[in-house]
Structure formats: structure tokens, C-alpha cells
Specification:
This is Enoyl-CoA hydratase domain-containing protein 3, mitochondrial. By secondary structure, this protein is α/β, with parallel strands linked by helices. The chain folds into two domains: 7-146, 2-enoyl-CoA Hydratase, Chain A, domain 1; 149-197, Lyase 2-enoyl-coa Hydratase, Chain  A, domain 2. Helix content is 54%, strand content 11%. It is built from nine helices and seven strands. The protein has a four-stranded mixed β-sheet. Strands 2-4-7 form a three-stranded parallel β-sheet, sandwiched between helices. The longest helix has 20 residues, at 23-42. The protein is globular.
């Protein structure tokens, strides 16, 4: 995900949330947003946010929902809904799963933005680079990902999100089975054979 201009994503159009519209319309807006955010994690490929500017409210939620986020040094992240009387409750779902609780709550209670480096320090973004290096760094990461097996990446991503909410014992039970399943994939065996034979693997896709 990327954007042009000084704003990465400012979230919902507040004009869509006025009292002129009914509860059904408001529900549809937030349900669609939640569907988009959850679909990102259900996609079988990694999703990268390339952030160059301000990400607020649902825009901040979008960054938190992506698998990887690369930000320019000028980027900022905020959930300012509280300041206009609309607490960022849905963005809080993604923020609360990406940030330490007290950092997320300070953002939600004050609406004050995190700088790019603060976002990196707390785990909201993966990497911060100068603005003129943002495209290069994002492409470098995506190209490295593309060197791996698509089926293995899909299995790994799905498993990561499945186990992360579990207790330690359950997480290891899930991932132990998946490691065994991974070995039954053609690409699982191809990768091991290629490593032993000191050659590049030839993936099935």
C-alpha cells in the first residue's frame, strides 16, 4: 500500500459519518473497514505498507494491519478521533495488537502523533528510512520476499497469525504440525534438496 502526497491515509471521510446518515449506513462503513483490515492478514502473500506522510485513524489502523511497514523519516502516526468526539475503537484493535498497551492507549487517549522513529521503537513499523530511499528499501524487501516459495510463504503467514493469539503450549502444538505439513509440500522438499546440493531452489510457482 502506498499513496501520493503528504498524507498516507487519513482514515474515514467524516462527511460519511454525519447524523444525516442512519445507523445502518454507519454500520456498513465500519464493517467494510474491518473486512478490509482482516483480509490483509488472510491474504496468502505478505502485504507491505510504504508510508510517506501522515497516517491517522483508520489510516494508522491500516499500517498496523499490514505484515510489514516501511516509513519515511517524515511520517507520523496518530489516532486523533478522541479530539473530535469519536474514539478510535476500531483502529484500537490493530494498534493493540501491534504496540505495547500503554503506548497504544496514550495514542488513543491523547490523539497525539508518534514520529516515525517512535513508531519504529514501539513496533508499529518495521523500518524507517530517508524519504529518498523509501521506494528502494520497500522494493528491496518485496524482491527478497519474491525469491521464496509462494506456497511456503502462504503457509507461514497463515500459521503466524493463527498461533500468535494462542498460549505458548497451543502455539507450539500448532506450529509443530505445520512444520511437518510444510515438509510434505513440494517446495519444502525442493528447498532442502537445493540447500544440500548447494544450488538455488526451483519453486513450483
Amino acid at each position: 500500500f502506498a499513496a501520493e502526497g503528504p498524507v498516507f491515509c487519513s482514515g474515514h471521510d467524516l462527511k460519511e459519518l454525519s447524523s444525516e446518515d442512519d445507523v445502518k449506513h454507519h454500520s456498513q462503513v465500519f464493517e467494510l473497514c474491518a473486512e478490509v483490515m482482516t483480509l490483509i492478514q488472510k491474504l496468502p502473500v505478505p502485504v507491505i505498507a510504504k508510508v510517506n506522510g501522515l497516517a491517522t485513524a483508520a489510516g494508522c489502523q491500516l499500517v498496523a494491519s499490514c505484515d510489514i511497514a516501511v516509513a519515511s523519516e517524515k511520517s507520523q502516526f496518530a489516532t486523533p478521533g478522541v479530539n473530535i468526539g469519536l474514539f478510535c475503537s476500531t483502529p484500537a484493535v490493530a494498534l493493540g495488537r501491534s504496540l505495547p498497551r500503554k503506548v497504544a492507549l496514550e495514542m488513543l487517549f491523547t490523539g497525539e502523533p508518534l514520529s516515525a522513529h517512535e513508531a519504529l521503537m514501539h513496533g508499529l513499523v518495521s523500518k524507517v528510512v530517508p524519504e529518498d530511499k523509501l521506494e528502494e528499501e520497500t522494493m528491496k524487501i518485496s524482491q527478497k520476499i519474491c525469491e521464496s516459495s509462494k506456497s511456503v510463504l502462504a503457509l507461514g503467514k497463515a500459521t503466524f497469525y493463527r498461533q500468535i493469539t494462542q498460549d505458548l503450549d497451543t502455539a507450539y502444538k500448532i506450529t509443530t504440525k505445520v512444520m511437518v505439513d510444510n515438509l510434505t509440500l513440494r517446495d519444502g522438499q525442493e528447498g532442502i534438496e537445493a540447500f544440500v546440493q548447494k544450488r538455488k531452489p526451483i519453486w513450483s510457482h
